[in-house]
Amino acid sequence: MSTFVRIGKKVKKFAKTVLLPAPKCNVTYCRRIERVKTKQRVCAMTFDDGPMALPAAPDGFAGRALTDVLLDTLADFGAKGTFDVIGFTGENYPDTCGHAGTPSWGGVAYDHYPSFGTDEMGGALHCPQLIERIIREGHQITNHGYRHILFGKKPYVYGNRRILGSLEAVVDDLSELDRLLRGQFGYQMTMSRPPHYVDRIDKRFSSYDAYEQMNYLYLAASFDGAGWLPSKHEDPVQAEIDEMVLPVQKKLEEDPDFFCGQIIFQKDGYNMALRTPVATGLRRQLELLDKAGYRVVTVQDLLKYSPFADVGEDDPDFEVFCRLLETHAIAYSNNTLQPDRAMTCGELAMLLAPRSEAVGRRLAALQAGNKAFAPRYSGAMDWCKTSGLLPQNARADAPLTKELLQNAGQLFAQLPNGFTRRAILRAYRG
């Protein structure tokens, strides 16, 4: 089954990059943070599915909890991690344990972390000492779902899995973990990653809708740190460690700046074969990055170098863009700004409408069954038309013109000569 997963990943990548057109991105409050643009040798690492109080497997660390081993290793290099944690999977029963080496290794109907039958040894609810250490030592915590249940269907790999299946259920699950971190630890999470990267919830909503409600950014990654897929090599432990280390080494040899601004995916827990190559492989990865002059920081600190995937501090309007981003929706869902592209009417509406209207009006209409509000800009467009900032016949996909800007002219220091996104954002005064 691990071979099937590997092949599936390659087919999916080929389809996305070669066969299928690039998905349309919309300006949104929830940006998918995959990497940022910076020339500095700084990157981030994320660790999914923990914390885990069970020891590494095989254990070469005197029985220390895996999460403690990872934190010890990060501390040795002055590195900061981003821990994408769960709450507790012990409520995901009755269930049946699947076969080791397959995606159902921890459960057929649901996930169980750290492993089937040992749910109390993982998650924020039962491992408060590990959560406290993560916070105390300056690492970041993000929301991976309280029960780590799929938001929606993923038939090819997890066809037998139970799903949350509605926006309300997803928000409830995320909110339970959010309340736990705030109430017990005084920690406010600002990012989230969907279990198994399943974005679609149902025909109306996706993870982006849930995260906009939670005021979260979407935590993604640009480089697979590996180790989570089992090896069939005669020495599988060493093979899985090599699969973590050799790709990092190769990329640095090809281009020492390859990891600038990248986010590396890791796992804080067992892989499909109930092994933890990350316990040893992480140190070797950090040794390579340290030798190349990299600093490993949290994702929230990585965003301080640039909050965008395509615009860095060398852009003449960088400070203007960063200041606007603090309170307005100006970037696309893939975290690009594309400042020299022509701005559309829908993108202008997202700039002008208050967040509560752009997000709340659309979601409320969809939940009431109004399919006309399915397009991402519909709430903002409706508010702008009601407020007289845009004419009633304005279309979201229409390029801006001087006539379309006329009613909103008082919101600009001066009407720009051009209608690129850069010109509009530069002239906007709020």
Can you describe this structure?
By secondary structure, the protein is of the alpha/beta class. The chain folds into 2 domains: 27-302, Glycoside hydrolase/deacetylase (TIM Barrel, Alpha-Beta Barrel), CATH 3.20.20; 318-427, no CATH class. The protein is 36% helix and 7% strand. The chain has helices spanning 2-19, 66-76, 128-136, 155-158, 167-185, 207-214, 236-254, 278-291, 299-302, 318-325, 345-352, 355-367, 378-386, 402-405, 421-427, and strands spanning 32-33, 42-48, 82-85, 140-143, 191-192, 217-219, 223-224, 263-267, 295-297. Strand 5, helix 6 (207-214) and strand 6 (217-219) form a beta-alpha-beta unit. The model has no long low-confidence stretch (mean pLDDT 94).
How many helices does DSSP assign?
15
- Radius of gyration over C-alpha positions, nearest whole angstrom: 23 Å
CATH-assigned homologous superfamily of the largest domain: Glycoside hydrolase/deacetylase
Order of helices and strands: HEEHEHEHHEHEEHEHEHHHHHHH
Tell the overall outline: globular
Whole-number tally of structural domains? 2
Structure summary, number of beta strands: 9
Q: Terminal Cα separation, in Å?
A: 54 Å
